[in-house]
Design goal:
- This protein has three domains: 4-114, no CATH class; 124-162 and 170-275, no CATH class; 290-407, Helix Hairpins.
- Helix content is 64%, strand content 6%.
- The chain is built from 18 helices and six strands.
- Helix 1 (2-9) runs parallel beside helix 3 (48-54) and helix 5 (97-103) crosses helix 16 (394-412).
- The longest helix has 36 residues, at 118-153.
Length: 508
């Protein structure tokens, strides 16, 4: 029976599935007990209720929610309903309903976030606990990054004592050894900031690694809604901090490399906290879609073009004096210069005071046509198309990001800082299940107006049908019948409208 219930949730005919679902449950002997068919999960650990949410079956979801709700009281147009949120709430669920919805790739599943009571539950959690904690976390992270930046700016350096090895050597300061790095009072103050930075990196790894093991690396890093790219950024940042610490303790030169990566990644991760604001959240979604969609594909084409033309430029200037043509004096510098040319950051880096090889003009002409005119405009067109596609669902994706952030904070924070939302069913004699109280107001005048409007439409439709039947009977006098039918329709529509307004006046 449980297998049949899961199959019915996946049926395309929603009405038939709901009727068959009720029929099967009518033969269940343990409707309210722990052995009920509705509570038995499938091989993926999903009950029929959770499976309806993951598959985006809104009809089945609303049908199951109507079965679970309890009407508390009603007085005229006002009514109070208790919705069962036991499986929906992520407070005590290892595999919560909300997390399953935001982690699925089906757009229909995200539409359930706008249905009652999911919408009200998410709004309650976010406004009461999620938004204040998230704003505090954003402020704390920015202060943490300021502390790390100051430690990097005032890192221990000393003047260089050795001689220059070439005319291109421009180094004035070198890194201090570990014994020389913490001597003065300023060094001790910097040590406090460095300890805070290292402790923060360890905390990031401790918080991120359990989620990777629980969700899986593919889903954790691959879902935009779950913040996949930002998780990669923050984990790489923490690793760079630990690498810098090891190099400082072992007095290894070259700590500027991991330190530079950590600064860039740490400040880029500030964009993650834009998802908490409706004005900035959709823009971060657009950036992620463009970077990991259009830009990643474009980089393969750009790499091929840069490798080809950089090699050509290096071969052309290989026999020339490097002091007069410094942009191509070795192969790595040729790659970097060609990359700058590709993005039109610089002009053609050639010294026109000396004789240039003839092939330089030919190769540079082809490079300008292919790179600047063709490929850059292709990238702009691709990004414009992505912006048009994502703009239709960016608000929906942002709401899903808010849900994912709320679930993440609820898992990370202690229970004393995040109490359970809703009302326990024991207060109303409904057992240990948890409910959410929702007040609804039904406007009777609105429904009455809709009934009158439908009545007017039916009368006008009947009059039109009668007029069309009369037009088909006599083909010889078509023009006369058309004129009479038009006058008849005007009179009947005027009469039905007059009768409808009289009904509205009397009811008012």
């Amino acid at each position: 029976g449980n297998t049949v219930l899961h199959i019915l949730v996946l049926q395309p005919n929603k009405t038939f599935a709901c009727h068959m679902y009720s029929l099967i449950l009518s033969y269940d002997r343990n409707k309210e007990g722990p052995g009920s068919l509705e509570l038995i999960p499938n091989n993926e650990g999903l009950s029929p209720f959770k499976l309806a949410g993951v598959e985006g079956n809104t009809v089945m979801f609303q049908y199951l929610m109507q079965k679970r709700k309890q009407n508390l009281w009603s007085f005229g147009p006002l009514s109070t309903v208790l919705y069962d949120i036991t499986e929906i709430d992520s407070w005590a669920e290892d595999q919560s309903f909300l997390e399953l919805i935001v982690s699925t790739k089906k757009r229909e599943a995200r539409q359930i976030l706008d249905l009652t009571p999911v919408k009200e539950l998410v709004s309650l959690k976010w406004n009461m606990y999620g938004r204040p904690y998230f704003c505090f976390l954003a402020l704390f992270y920015i202060l943490y990054m300021v502390c790390f930046t100051m430690c990097c700016v005032y890192r221990p350096l000393k003047p260089r004592t050795g001689n220059r090895t070439s005319s291109r050597d421009n180094t004035l300061y070198v890194q201090k050894m570990l014994q020389e790095s913490y001597v003065a009072y300023e060094d001790e103050l910097r040590l406090v900031g460095e300890l805070i930075t290292v402790i923060g990196a360890v905390v990031i790894l401790v918080l991120e690694i359990p989620d990777i093991l629980r969700v899986g690396a593919a889903k954790y890093f691959g879902q935009t809604i779950l913040g996949g790219p930002f998780h990669i950024i923050v984990i790489t940042y923490a690793c760079m901090i630990l690498v810098t610490m090891v190099m400082r303790l072992t007095s290894t030169t070259g700590e500027v490399v991991p330190m530079s990566f950590a600064l860039v990644l740490g400040w880029c991760n500030v964009m993650y906290f834009a998802r908490g604001f409706q004005m900035l959240g959709p823009f971060t979604i657009m950036i992620q879609k463009m970077i990991f969609g259009d830009l990643m594909r474009f980089c393969w084409l750009m790499a091929v073009v840069i490798l080809g033309f950089a090699s050509a430029f290096y071969i052309i200037f290989q026999t020339e004096n490097p002091e007069n043509l410094g942009q191509f004096y070795n192969y790595p510098m040729s790659l970097f210069t060609t990359f700058e040319l590709f993005l039109t950051i610089i002009d053609g880096p050639a010294n026109y005071d000396v004789d240039l090889p003839f092939m330089y003009s030919v190769v540079y002409f082809a490079f300008a046509i292919i790179a600047t005119l063709l490929m850059l405009n292709l990238l702009i067109a691709m990004m414009g198309d992505t912006h048009w596609r994502v703009a239709h669902e960016q608000d929906e994706l942002w709401r899903a990001q808010v849900v994912a952030t709320t679930v993440m904070l609820e898992r990370k924070l202690p229970r004393c800082l995040w109490p359970r939302s809703g009302i326990c069913g024991r207060e109303f004699g409904l057992g240990d299940r948890w409910y959410l109280r929702i007040e609804d107001r039904i406007d009777p005048n609105k429904h009455k107006m809709m009934r009158y409007t439908e009545a007017f439409k039916v009368q006008d439709r009947d009059n039109c049908d009668k007029g069309s039947e009369k037009l088909e009977t006599n083909g010889d006098t078509l023009c006369k019948k058309e004129m009479s039918a038009l006058s008849l329709s005007r009179s009947t529509s005027r009469t039905s409208s007059h009768r409808g307004w009289e009904i509205l006046r009397r009811n008012t």
